[in-house]
């Protein structure tokens, strides 16, 4: 592969030692006799915790980057469909990563940082997490609810109504990470591995509704700091679901409804990447549906592959 | 007890593989026999069917091993229909990432773990005297150690994935990843 | 298109043009029915045998008739000939056969109705013709169009005296070593007749079923514990053209009836009274004299010896240009004969007309004599043995125990043979019940067979050897019963416990035998029964429609065979390959049609791709879109509901084992089969892995053999 100017997975400082890594043409390497005596290789990528950082990206920086993506695609593409597909592909690679990251983060016991809460959260119920960490903000608690899978729709909407009044404030900044209050504890004693803080991994979502609720709640909160405005099942076709955002923050500065919708395919891609990698093959499209004060109200229409529905029927329907 | 570990991507392609053979005191390496070295990736590939079956079961339990009954009854995945409330509670309490022992092949045990993105982490556990002979005594799996090992690997994998320059599904050639995995193997599997 | 028949499938190696056909899943039931079909012994005289060998170059009458075993109404020896030149030859033969048949008819009429012997009108001729038509042509012999139970199979074997003289004393069902020798010879034949590119999938299944049929059946071994291979009809043949007379026939019959006195150690479990003697008169149809002699002898045998007679126009004058039929080997034969014929591989030919005549008389034998005899016996045993027990006990267990204990104390029914083995005598109730059950099984009355095995099994608790095979066949009757009846529940609650019980009992009796004689050889007979039981059960499980549920059981038994039975290396590899077949059959019924559609679509795509590839040589490559779209169509629903990868792996293992045995054709076929499964994986190209190494060895083999041939 001549284009390997940057070794894809070795952009960290130790790429010079590349020869000791895995080579797929050769196969597994056996353990070396002196393996345990060697000083372990280090890299920033692997040393940092998946949970400790809280970097918010300023909306303007993100918008500049987004604008670059869009204009370069514009030059490249001949049709709108092609443009939308390519923009969606960008989103997909983000969606697939968020699928792993957010689920993994959700596995961490909510109050594992402090002694008292560790004790209490051994039962990991919704109630205990709320009482043990009273300082956590509403949004976070809400995520935990979703993660535990119990009645998350109700909680999701309640949370939305809480944050609804200040939704503009949230929309003004896009966060790449929204772990706040509980994560602050970790900053003092950075733990490289989170596994010790996980008593039980979050369950993989097997059903359409479960994973959509995770997107509606956790994914949206991670991206935009609020849950999505609605999650609706189509009454006409049973493979269609809609996630609704009243004010998509990323595309708010783009004028012209058609242009804006095309650019929303970036989010479509994120949803699609998230779902497809979890085993829910689908097509995601964006549609504009203004309602009342929300002129930019956008519907992300998710059309699942028929096989997904069939599988659900075979696997989970009671005979 | 040697192990062969691999991360399998969506197209059945290994994106990472490693063999762990543990030194025991002054003994020389107790690795897999040459015959098994040639076959391990295929043995592992063969168990992917069962892993995918378990992947979509509400309570991923391979009846083959839980009941001691060899029926491997995959059509059993619909859980008992009674008591929605109680049921959902028990279902939610089971971990469906770590699948435990999923398969066996002449004394070798195969365990598996599935990440949220559908990556399959699979490991063949050999016996210490595995010369490919038909030793009937199968390997005993320490589930809690094994589970922790897989979780740590999962975390390492996510870290790899967080690197924007790594494309999902590509082989993980990072030596750091490799050395991390090996030290985890020493920590959890060297028993 | 010609029909693809049972015989074509079982002898596929000699019908390679059918390689792309499919075989029905129920094939194993048919093979089983054939494997336990009634056995007919053929006793001939040296004069007759010599005459046959002079005229047709076949050693003996038995050697000739053995080609006609199988389903008589299928007439599989003449399949190729009736279909190819149906019009010209049919007329031809029927022209000639009218003459013959008139004679035959006259004889037959005399047998049944002596009064009408003056009238030989065309009307009676038509009746018999229609009769034959009913049996021969009303049904298609296509493999797909008939239920297995509709055909009556038969097998031929040597005279009973020969069987008893060559009988091994160890009661083995089959010999592992002979099976291995046969396989090796057969594989050599395959190597000779095929190439690496021959479509192999059906051929391999056919090979397995040939192997399977030999493991479950034998025409030469007489088991004391079951009566499947015990002869039911004894054909006694006379050559009329050489002047053999009534006295010759009578003497032969007497010596047959007195076998039990004249043969040393005549087994107690054989009863010549349960074998129907039938005379077979071989005559020349052109000689009026001989025809008349036949009819008078027929009457005489009937009147004085109470024995029926059939007549065969064996000595036909060689008509110019008569079509010679090349006979194929019969499907069920003894292992020794099979081995012999794989070694010499020489053609046997008979005139088409004669072949038809033989089938005609066999039709008569089976439908007019054999089956009525069996039904008579069955209902007699029903009334005399089965019914009294039923009405006496009324299902009360206590009474049953009480009385059966009493009867056991008499123990007169058990007979000790010269080797000190205790057997039930042929006249004992236990053995009669067993016979009743076995014969019901042979005539496809599975329900009756089941109830008989079931009631018998309660009385054999103290005789594990008898108990084990009884339980085994009880389970098999359940599996053979109508397919729709076999449910998951039935498998779990009835069939599997029975089979496991049978296996345990076999185990127990082999351990007992070992204790008593502490010689390891005495345990082997039960091992052969055990192997038979497992291989048979596995195969019948595979024939059920819900393969998702049934394959795990098949796999379990096959793996047990591999770990416990002393099969030879080639036989073992056959089992490994069968395991691969099991896994590829493991398919959830809810997705079966989808997967099948998907497969055909993929096959089509592959074909297209091939074409595109060929076009590319002339045009510019524009294939990239195609390849990416293909990779993404893996079936989400089917995920985890098939065992394709397992199947591929077991095929790979088999390839490795074939390579160890230097069976390169088999290696090549295995590797062809799994090519698609591994092609997209890096595993296929890695030099240090087994797949690459096998491919490497295979291509080196070709180089080596090429060098050998050039030098």
TrEMBL record, chain A:
Region of interest (Disordered), ranges: 126-197
Keywords, ordered alphabetically: Endoplasmic reticulum, ER-Golgi transport, Golgi apparatus, Transport
Assigned GO CC terms: endoplasmic reticulum; TRAPPI protein complex; TRAPPII protein complex; TRAPPIII protein complex
Ranges of compositional bias, category Polar residues: 165-176
Keyword Transport in annotation: yes
Keyword DNA-binding on entry: no
Localization (cell): Endoplasmic reticulum; Golgi apparatus
Biological process annotations from GO: endoplasmic reticulum to Golgi vesicle-mediated transport
Low complexity composition bias: residue spans: 126-147, 155-164
InterPro entries xrefs: NO_sig/Golgi_transp_ligand-bd, TRAPP-I_su5, TRAPP_component
SUPFAM superfamilies referenced in this protein's UniProt entry, alphabetically: Ligand-binding domain in the NO signalling and Golgi transport
Chief subcellular location: endoplasmic reticulum
Gene3D superfamilies associated with the record: Trafficking protein particle complex subunit 3 (3.30.1380.20)
Family note: Belongs to the TRAPP small subunits family. BET3 subfamily.
Protein's name according to its UniProt entry: Similar to Saccharomyces cerevisiae YDR472W TRS31 One of 10 subunits of the transport protein particle (TRAPP) complex of the cis-Golgi which mediates vesicle docking and fusion
Lineage: Eukaryota, Fungi, Dikarya, Ascomycota, Saccharomycotina
TrEMBL record, chain B:
CDD domains given in the database record: TRAPPC2_sedlin (cd14825)
A matching Pfam family: Sedlin_N
GO cellular component, one term: cytoplasm
Gene Ontology biological process terms in this record: endoplasmic reticulum to Golgi vesicle-mediated transport
InterPro entries cross-referenced by the UniProt entry: Longin-like_dom_sf, Sedlin
Protein known as: Similar to Saccharomyces cerevisiae YBR254C TRS20 One of 10 subunits of the transport protein particle (TRAPP) complex of the cis-Golgi which mediates vesicle docking and fusion
From TrEMBL, chain C:
GO cellular component: TRAPPIII protein complex
Residue ranges of the region described as Disordered: 119-144
Domain of life, per lineage: Eukaryota
Pfam family, one: TRAPPC-Trs85
Compositional bias of kind Polar residues: 119-129
PANTHER family reported in the protein's UniProt record: TRAFFICKING PROTEIN PARTICLE COMPLEX SUBUNIT 8, TRANSPORT PROTEIN TRAPP
Protein name: Similar to Saccharomyces cerevisiae YDR108W TRS85 Subunit of TRAPPIII (Transport protein particle)
Taxonomy of the source species: Eukaryota, Fungi, Dikarya, Ascomycota, Saccharomycotina
């Amino acid at each position: 592969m001549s284009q390997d100017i940057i070794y894809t997975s070795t952009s960290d400082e130790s790429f010079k030692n590349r020869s000791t890594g895995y080579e797929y043409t050769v196969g597994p390497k056996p353990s070396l006799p002196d393996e345990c005596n060697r000083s372990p290789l280090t890299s920033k990528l692997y040393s940092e915790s998946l949970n400790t950082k809280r970097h918010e990206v300023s909306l303007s920086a993100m918008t500049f980057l987004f604008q670059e993506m869009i204009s370069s695609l514009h030059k490249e593409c001949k049709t709108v469909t092609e443009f939308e597909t390519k923009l969606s592909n960008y989103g997909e690679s983000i969606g697939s990563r968020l699928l792993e990251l957010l689920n993994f983060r959700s596995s961490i016991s909510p109050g594992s940082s402090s002694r008292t809460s560790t004790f209490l959260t051994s039962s990991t119920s919704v109630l205990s997490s709320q009482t043990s960490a009273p300082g956590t903000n509403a949004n976070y608690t809400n995520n935990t609810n979703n993660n535990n899978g119990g009645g998350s729709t109700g909680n999701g909407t309640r949370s939305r109504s809480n944050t609804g009044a200040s939704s503009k404030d949230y929309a003004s900044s896009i966060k790449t990470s929204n772990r706040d209050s509980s994560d602050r504890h970790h900053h003092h004693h950075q733990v490289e591995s989170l596994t010790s803080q996980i008593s039980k991994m979050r369950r993989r979502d097997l059903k359409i509704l479960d994973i959509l609720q995770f997107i509606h709640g956790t994914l949206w909160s991670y991206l935009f700091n609020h849950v999505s405005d609605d999650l609706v099942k189509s009454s006409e076709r049973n493979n269609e679901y809609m996630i609704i955002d009243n004010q998509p923050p990323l595309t708010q500065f783009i004028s012209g409804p058609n242009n804006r919708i095309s650019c929303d395919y970036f989010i479509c891609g994120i949803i699609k990447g998230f779902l497809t990698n979890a085993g829910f093959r689908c097509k995601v499209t964006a549609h504009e549906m203004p309602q009342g004060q929300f002129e930019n109200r956008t519907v992300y229409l998710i059309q699942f592959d028929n096989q997904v529905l069939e599988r659900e029927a075979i696997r989970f329907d009671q005979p | 007890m040697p192990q062969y570990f691999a991360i399998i991507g969506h197209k059945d392609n290994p994106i990472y593989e490693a063999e762990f053979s543990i030194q025991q005191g002054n003994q020389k390496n107790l690795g897999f026999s040459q015959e098994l070295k040639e076959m391990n990736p295929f043995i592992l590939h063969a168990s992917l069917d069962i892993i995918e079956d378990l992947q979509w079961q509400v309570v991923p339990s391979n009846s083959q091993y839980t009941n001691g009954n060899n029926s491997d009854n995959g059509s059993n995945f619909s859980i008992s229909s009674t008591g929605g409330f109680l049921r959902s509670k028990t279902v939610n309490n089971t971990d469906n990432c770590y699948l435990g022992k999923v398969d066996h092949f002449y004394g070798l045990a195969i365990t598996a773990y599935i990440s949220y993105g559908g990556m399959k982490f699979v490991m063949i556990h050999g016996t210490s005297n595995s010369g490919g002979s038909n030793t009937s005594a199968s390997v005993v799996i320490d589930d809690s150690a094994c589970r922790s090992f897989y979780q740590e690997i999962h975390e390492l994998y996510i870290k790899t994935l967080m690197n924007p320059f790594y494309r999902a599904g590509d082989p993980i050639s990072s030596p750091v990843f490799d050395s991390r995995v090996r030290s985890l193997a020493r920590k959890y599997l060297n028993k | 298109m010609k029909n693809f028949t049972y015989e074509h499938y079982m002898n596929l190696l000699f019908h390679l043009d059918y390689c792309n056909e499919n075989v029905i899943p129920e094939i194993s039931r048919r093979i089983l029915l054939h494997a336990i079909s009634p056995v007919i012994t053929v006793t001939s005289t040296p004069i007759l045998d010599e005459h046959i060998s002079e005229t047709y170059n076949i050693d003996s009458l038995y050697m000739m008739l053995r080609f006609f075993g199988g389903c008589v109404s299928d007439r599989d020896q003449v399949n190729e000939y009736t279909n190819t030149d149906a019009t010209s030859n049919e007329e031809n033969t029927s022209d000639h056969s009218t003459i013959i048949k008139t004679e035959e008819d006259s004889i037959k009429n005399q047998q049944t109705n002596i009064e009408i012997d003056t009238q030989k009108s065309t009307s009676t001729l038509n009746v018999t013709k229609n009769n034959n038509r009913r049996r021969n042509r009303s049904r298609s012999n296509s493999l797909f169009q008939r239920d297995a139970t509709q055909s009556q199979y038969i097998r031929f074997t040597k005279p009973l005296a020969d069987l008893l003289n060559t009988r091994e004393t160890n009661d083995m069902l089959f010999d592992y070593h002979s099976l291995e020798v046969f396989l090796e010879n057969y594989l050599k034949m395959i190597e000779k007749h095929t190439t690496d590119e021959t479509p192999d999938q059906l051929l391999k299944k056919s090979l397995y079923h040939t192997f399977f049929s030999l493991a479950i059946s034998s025409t030469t071994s007489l088991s004391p514990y079951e009566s499947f291979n015990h002869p039911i009809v004894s054909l006694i043949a006379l050559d009329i053209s050489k002047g053999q007379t009534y006295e010759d026939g009578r003497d032969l019959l007497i010596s047959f009836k007195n076998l039990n006195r004249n043969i040393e150690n005549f087994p107690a479990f054989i009863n010549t009274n349960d074998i129907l003697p039938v005379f077979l008169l071989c005559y020349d149809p052109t000689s009026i004299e001989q025809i008349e002699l036949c009819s008078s002898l027929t009457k005489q045998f009937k009147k004085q010896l109470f024995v029926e007679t059939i007549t065969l126009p064996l000595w036909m004058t060689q008509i110019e240009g008569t079509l010679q039929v090349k006979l194929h080997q019969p499907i069920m034969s003894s292992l020794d004969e099979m081995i012999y014929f794989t070694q010499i591989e020489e053609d046997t030919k008979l005139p088409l007309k004669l072949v038809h005549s033989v089938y005609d008389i066999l039709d008569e034998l089976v439908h007019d004599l054999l089956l009525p005899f069996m039904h008579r016996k069955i209902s007699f045993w029903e009334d005399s043995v089965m019914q009294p027990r039923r009405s006496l006990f009324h299902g009360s267990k206590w009474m049953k125990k009480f009385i059966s204990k009493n009867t056991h104390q008499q123990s007169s029914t058990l007979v000790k043979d010269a080797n000190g083995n205790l057997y039930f005598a042929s006249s004992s109730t236990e053995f009669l019940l067993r016979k009743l059950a076995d014969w019901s099984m042979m005539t496809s009355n599975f329900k009756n067979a089941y109830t008989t095995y079931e009631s018998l099994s309660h009385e054999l608790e103290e005789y594990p050897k008898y108990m084990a095979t009884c339980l085994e066949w009880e389970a098999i009757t359940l599996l053979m019963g109508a397919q729709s009846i076999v449910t998951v529940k039935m498998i779990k609650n009835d069939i599997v416990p029975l089979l496991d019980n049978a296996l345990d009992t076999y185990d127990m009796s082999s351990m007992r035998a070992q204790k008593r004689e502490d010689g390891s050889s005495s345990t082997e007979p039960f091992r052969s029964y055990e192997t038979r039981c497992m291989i048979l059960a596995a195969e019948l499980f595979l024939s059920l429609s819900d393969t998702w549920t049934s394959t795990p059981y098949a796999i379990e038994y096959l793996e047990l065979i591999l770990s416990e039975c002393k099969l030879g290396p080639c036989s073992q590899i056959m089992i490994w390959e069968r395991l691969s077949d099991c896994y590829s059959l493991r398919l959830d019924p809810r997705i079966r049609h989808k997967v099948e559609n998907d497969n055909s679509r993929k096959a089509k795509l592959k074909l297209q791709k091939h074409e595109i590839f060929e076009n590319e040589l002339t045009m510019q490559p524009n294939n990239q879109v195609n390849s990416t779209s293909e990779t993404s169509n893996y079936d989400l629903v089917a995920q985890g509901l098939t065992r394709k990868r397992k199947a591929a792996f077991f095929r790979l293992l088999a390839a490795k084992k074939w390579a160890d045995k230097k069976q390169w054709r088999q290696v090549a076929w295995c590797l062809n089969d799994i090519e698609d499964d591994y092609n997209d994986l890096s595993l296929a190209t890695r030099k240090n892995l087994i797949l690459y190494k096998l491919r490497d060895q295979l291509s080196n083999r070709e180089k080596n053999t090429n060098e050998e041939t050039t030098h």
